[in-house]
């Protein structure tokens, strides 16, 4: 008796695409990003019903402006936290870079591009110093960056003479003043220029994380640093590069905060690092390292800005705003711990 041979159908291209899409959707980082986005929508919905002023154009622009600085700082922190490190100096580093831009532009009267490059270069130099302390001298990241935070806070006050540096005294400051970075590149689109800069930094940073050798080593350092070292990779070099990049991005944040205030305020900055780190954790980047996305970080930054703005509109006292922010940070870290255990 003859039997017909059984044939197995070859997998189609559609099946492969569906499998990849399913893998992406069930990826822990993707799930955390979607959860953060759902939380952002829930917050916005709540505050919309709680106050009729929340969806006013001026208020939404205010949220965007507040997110620009914190978002850039959070992007800087993302690189470091993915390596399972921490940087407590990003807030005072931002201020220090703003002060140095003020020195180059206002005190010394140098061209505008020199001031911009100086802010980024000094940020990278400070990040490089922190990286050397951590990678070469084996100082724990928490201690190294805490010391750098205090150092930069003091230097900002010393260099500026404890007084703000106002950019109204700088002839070329219209290129970096409130009218330029808080104004609009495209008048028909009511998005502040600082927010467009945030998005540009986010896109470039995302490309670096996903498409470059630096990005691959950043994730590898956070996943298993010892395995990377045993593979023959110069771990210390790449760790220093990550901290240097972190500092350079903080320099951009310094330019944004300077343009927003139209001055370099040497006493400003401390406390910004907590909001930045909170945005990173809320966005799904694990404090244990190895996972994280720039998109999640941006969503986390918007959550922090929406929360602060909404509580302020509802006339919640400042001290209770701080309490709520602290509770959210604790919950975000706890969720991260649970996620890591399940993995």
Structure description:
Helix content is 72%, strand content 1%. It contains 13 helices and two strands, in the order ααααααβααααβααα. The protein has helices at 13-25, 28-50, 57-82, 90-107, 112-135, 141-160, 178-181, 193-211, 213-230, 235-261, 272-282, 294-313, 318-342; strands at residues 165-166, 263-264. The chain has a two-stranded antiparallel ribbon with strand order 1-2. Helix 3 (57-82) packs across helix 11 (272-282) and helix 5 (112-135) packs antiparallel against helix 6 (141-160). The radius of gyration is 22 Å and the shape is globular. The termini are far apart.
Overall geometric form = globular
Individual helix count:
13
CATH architecture assignment name = Orthogonal Bundle
State the end-to-end CA separation: 53 Å
Count of domain modules: 1
Radius of gyration: 22 Å
Beta-strand proportion: under 5%
Q: Mean of residue pLDDT? A: 86
Q: What is the number of strand segments?
A: 2
Strand order in the sheet with the most strands:
1-2
CATH fold label: ABC transporter involved in vitamin B12 uptake, BtuC
What share of residues is helical? over 70%
**SSE class:** mainly alpha
Low-confidence stretches: 1-9, 173-182
H/E topology pattern: HHHHHHEHHHHEHHH
CATH class: Mainly Alpha
- Main beta-sheet annotation: 2 strands, antiparallel
Short key terms for the protein model shown above:
single chain; 343 residues; mainly alpha; ABC transporter involved in vitamin B12 uptake, BtuC; two-stranded antiparallel ribbon; 2 strands; disordered N terminus
